[in-house]
Write a structure and sequence with these properties.
This protein has 11 helices and 6 strands. It is of the alpha+beta class and 275 residues long. It folds into 3 domains: 105 residues, Conserved hypothetical protein from pyrococcus furiosus pfu- 392566-001, ParB domain (Alpha-Beta Complex); 50 residues; 52 residues, no CATH class.
Length: 275
């Protein structure tokens, strides 16, 4: 971890620093800034030392990427540096804290990269937006926006397309006019199953659609019950019609018995019980 006292600067080989550990929190380096620093170094002007963290194996550069690049431009092999004990994560935290205090002005992309680095830290990601905004030098709104984007990226993608319209169903033959039946109060009920196709064999030996039964016209009052016994009693249609007409007019039961006597004694006995 980082010591309490900051060590003195010393000359350090430029190539000894690891520059690819995610500690560079700029979207890209500023070529104009590099050229200006290179001009000062070439003239022998003293510049601020860079800062690195050494974990026992790797020396992580935390601050001074433009200065390192400027030394490479003028082919300087050594640079003045402050070396601290610490891990790669310590170097990233130091870079987050120093990035908005020193160096070239940051772009929105630079600020976003800084917030992403802070939220990638297991401990810092649990901090509030207000605390993180202070560490990163950005607004609370920026931290909240980036945090929400990261949470949304963890969820599976959502299709917002509107569902395609279902094809209209053809009503079954002989069924209701729609794909669903409706009850008396207008609510939709279950779909009516399709009726099986009925065929008949004609004289030519081929199958033909079954003939639909003809609807009988509504009977006059008094016809139905007497016609049920038409075949059993052997009463002719003419006798039945006269009998129905007599009953419909409400004439005396003797006239009904006279008509039934002409059709047979069995009909007369049945009529006596019913009238």
């Amino acid at each position: 971890m980082v010591g309490s006292e900051k060590p003195l600067p010393r000359k350090q080989p430029v190539e000894s620093f690891n520059l690819d550990g995610g500690t560079q929190l700029r979207e890209k380096l500023d070529d104009a800034n590099i050229a200006e620093i290179a001009r000062l170094v070439n003239r022998g002007v003293k510049i601020d030392p860079v800062v690195g963290f050494y974990d026992g194996k790797v020396l992580w550069l935390a601050h001074g990427f433009h200065r390192i690049a400027a030394h490479e431009v003028v082919k300087k092999r050594h640079i003045l540096a402050v070396i601290l004990d610490g891990t790669r994560q310590d170097a990233i935290r130091y870079a987050i804290a120093q990035n908005h205090k020193h160096g070239a002005k940051r772009t929105n992309a630079d600020k976003r990269l800084c917030v992403l680095a802070a939220l990638a830290d297991p401990e810092w990601s649990a901090l509030s937006n207000s605390i993180l905004s202070g560490k990163c030098g950005v607004s609370d709104h920026t931290v909240a926006t980036v945090r929400a984007e990261l949470r949304a990226a963890e969820l599976p993608p959502t299709d917002h397309k509107r569902p395609a319209a279902e094809p209209e169903k053809t009503p079954p033959t002989g069924g209701a006019s729609g794909s669903q039946l409706r009850t008396s109060n207008g609510a939709e009920g279950a779909e009516k199953p399709a009726e099986p196709e009925i065929t008949r064999v004609g004289r030519d030996g081929r199958r033909h659609p079954a003939r639909k039964p003809r609807k009988k016209p509504p009977s006059k009052p008094g016809h139905t019950r007497f016609r049920e016994f038409h075949k059993a009693l052997g009463v002719t249609k003419r006798t039945l019609d006269a009998l129905a007409e007599t009953v419909g007019k409400g004439q005396h039961s003797r006239e009904v018995l006279r008509l039934l006597d002409s059709a047979g004694s069995e009909a007369a006995e049945w009529e006596k019980e019913e009238i």
